[in-house]
Structures are given as structure tokens and as C-alpha cells.
Amino acid sequence: MFADTAVLVERNLLTVRRIPTLLLSATVQPLMFVFLFAYVFGATLGGGAYREFLMAGIFTQTVVFNAAITTVGLANDMEDGIVDRLRSLPMSRLAVIAGRVTSDMLLGIIGVVIMVACGLVIGWRIRGSATDAVIAFAILLLFALAMAWVGAVSGLAAKNVEVATSIGFLWMFPVTFLSSAFISAGSLPGPLKPIAEWNPVTAVATALREKFANASPPDFPAPTGWPAEHAAEYSIICSVVILVICVPLSLYLYRRSANR
């Protein structure tokens, strides 16, 4: 299974090398969000303090949006008939999906590295210990893995690339923006507040801020509730639960697609 996965990872990365524009969504888009939120919205939300608050949200948003790469890539493989050819080979069925997820994860890591550099340029700093920083990036990568498998489920459930693109953004935007990625969840009205507080995106962003020791702007309401008080633990629990659900579900959808 691991050897089959490695072969497919190499195949997917070779495709990126031959078509470099595939890197745009993993690199340029996050940079656009950094500058947009940091300088357009940040001017009225706390300036430098908001930029420190912002970066954890941008990191989290990026790994969520990178799930779209997996969704579209897997749907494209299904539509082009590549998956049908792989089915005829003596290889692990799970490796087909894992190969796509792993290669897209590697592209996502490149995007995170670029964002770290961009964050340093706009004044963001890691103010916690080196150990806490490593833990923060580990939490982020685990969540990225979970989101990639969500993307795999979406891609396998879609009938074609066009549908896959629509499915991806239908859940990515509300999940990302109904959270504390860019604002304090405590400022949301009515039922939106508890939804945002229990949103895994909020937990990951909060955990990163805690580990990076990035304070919120003074006028932002402080996060409250169990998810905020145990952000790192809740982030890990959410990621593991998503993986436990999505890995077998993606394999089921892959097997079912053979009967389409």
C-alpha cells in the first residue's frame, strides 16, 4: 500500500512540475488573503495587533481551502478515466486516494511556508517557545490532513469536475468565515456565536494563537467556553474524528464509483 501511494504521489507531483500554474491556488491565493485582511480590514480592526491575530486564521483558512485542490484533482482523475486504469492494476484501492491526498498535502506545506515568510514581512512574529511553535504547526498539519480527506470525499461524491468545484466552496466558505479565523467568535450575535465557538476552524485558529503567543486586539471579546479553554485538545479531537469518518467513507465512495 505504501509503495503504491508513493508511486501515485510522484505521478501527481510530476503533473505539477509540468503544469506549474497548478501551484497558484496553493500559493498566490493565501498571499492575497494575507494582504487583503492585513491592510484593508486591518486598518480598522487594530492595525499591527490585528495582523498578529490574523495570521493564525489565515493559516487555518488556507488548509481548509486547500481541500478544494484534492476535490477537483480527484474528480478530474475520475472523469479522465485515470482511476479506471488504476483499478485494473494489482494495487491498493486506498492508495489511489492516499496518493492524491499526500501530494496535495505537500503542496499545502509549500503554501504554509510561503505564508510564514509573508507574515514575517507584515510584522507577525512567533512570540512563544520553539516547542510551542512546533506543536502549533503539528496541529495545523493534522487539521490539513483531515481537510484533505474531506476534499477526497467531496471529489469522489461529485459526478464531474464542475460539480466538484461547486461542492467544495459550498462548505468551505461558511465553515471558514463563521468562525474566529478573522474576528472574535464572541462578537457574533444570537445562535451564530455558539456555532462559531464550536467550529473546528475556531479551535485550530485559537490553538495556534495560544502556541504562537499572539494576543488578540484589545477591543476583541475574549474567547470563552470549553472549546476556547481546551483549544489544542479540541482541535486534535476534531481532526481525528474527521479522519475516522472520511477515510473509510472515501474508500466506500471509490468502490461504489466503479458501478457508475
Automatic annotation (TrEMBL):
Record-level GO cellular component terms: ATP-binding cassette (ABC) transporter complex
Places the protein is found: Cell membrane; Membrane
A Gene Ontology molecular function term of the record: ABC-type transporter activity
InterPro entries per UniProt: ABC2_TM (IPR013525), ABC2_TM_bact-type (IPR047817), ABC_2_transport (IPR000412), Nod_factor_ABC_transporter (IPR051784)
Keyword flag Secreted: no
Domain of life: Bacteria
Topology of the protein relative to the lipid bilayer: Multi-pass membrane protein
Keywords: Antibiotic resistance, Cell membrane, Membrane, Transmembrane, Transmembrane helix, Transport
Family assignment from sequence similarity: Belongs to the ABC-2 integral membrane protein family.
Listed name of the protein: Transport permease protein
Species for this entry: Gordonia soli NBRC 108243
Organism taxonomic ancestry: Bacteria, Bacillati, Actinomycetota, Actinomycetes, Mycobacteriales
